[in-house]
Amino acid sequence: YQVEVDRTIQSGHMKQLLEGVELEDGFAKVDAIDYADNGSNKQGAVITIHSGRNRIVRRMFEHFDYKIKKLDRVKFATLDKRGLQRGNWRHLTPDEVGFLKTM
What we know:
globular; 24% helix; four-stranded antiparallel beta sheet; two-stranded antiparallel sheet; alpha+beta; 3 helices
């Protein structure tokens, strides 16, 4: 996911997200997190998670009182949006379909 919030993301909050936070529906943590744009955007983050709970990314940042300005899922499993313009779609390849069936 790529996230943009209303203010600078504190490095301590990023560390806490790696260690995990307690939300109303249980414990949640990110697998990886870094500032966006190779560290030049401190109001943005790139995160990796394996939890599929409802609105989990948004709720993790709201736990620290950040307001989400933008939230974009850029990758799912081995699928990504590279080369696709906003609003466009493409058919999955047979290999992609096969991989998803094994998940």
